[in-house]
Amino acid sequence: MGVYLFLEVRSGLAAPDLAAVPRPRASDLGPRPEEPKTEPVAKGSATVASPVKHVDSSAGPPPQVQPSDESHDDVPADGKPNPKLDAIMDQANKAYDRQDFDEAKAIAGKVLAKLPNNVRMLRIMVSSSCIDGDVAIAQKYFPTLPKFDREQMKVRCDRYGVTLTDPPQ
């Protein structure tokens, strides 16, 4: 079987001309990551190679990400995750899901008092207000939403007979 396969491949298929295919140069690929260096570490009677991590301090601090124009306060200004805030927002979502819109709005209102541009809570506030028929509250928070979210909220609120108007340009 192996002989047959060898003869078939050799006679039927021409090998591609690898010399005609351009090969990338190492400089085209960018810098190569360094292989981890190892240093011997004595363990009992045997010597074991242990990886040593070298840090390039000349690289400087990591670049700071600048927020876009449409960014909102979904995270605190320090950029660190806030589990307590996430838990509170989850409570607002759960209240909304079980159709307790008064509680959902109350929780969202507390978050929005500290983070007025939090899109997640703005959506809950606008949507809950539309479902409750509270046009004034829905319209109050509606202009703060990003354009994409405003379009979604218009469609959702129209289902409940609430027409929201975009802010003047």
Please render the helix and strand layout as text.
Blueprint: H1 2-12, E1 37-43, E2 46-52, H2 83-97, H3 101-114, H4 119-132, H5 135-141, H6 147-158
Antiparallel strand pairs: 1-2
Helix pairs in contact: 2-3, 2-4, 3-4, 4-5, 4-6
Description:
- The protein is mainly α.
- It has a domain at 83-158: Serine Threonine Protein Phosphatase 5, Tetratricopeptide repeat, CATH 1.25.40.
- 43% of the residues lie in helices and 8% in strands.
- The protein has helices at 2-12, 83-97, 101-114, 119-132, 135-141, 147-158, and strands spanning 37-43, 46-52.
- The chain has a two-stranded antiparallel ribbon.
- Strand 1 and strand 2 (46-52) form a beta hairpin.
- The N and C termini lie far apart (77 Å).
- The model is unreliable at 26-30, 52-57 and 59-73 (pLDDT under 50).
Short structural description:
With 169 residues, the protein is mainly alpha-helical.
* Secondary structure category: mainly alpha
Rounded average pLDDT: 74
Name the beta content range: 5-15%
**How big is the Rg?**
30 Å
Low-confidence stretches: 26-30, 52-57, 59-73
Number of H/I helices = 6
Question: Strand count, sense and closure of the main sheet?
Answer: 2 strands, antiparallel
Extended strand count: 2
Order of helices and strands: HEEHHHHH
Distance between the termini: 77 Å
Give the helix level as a range of percent.
40-55%
CATH architecture descriptor name of the domain at 83-158: Alpha Horseshoe
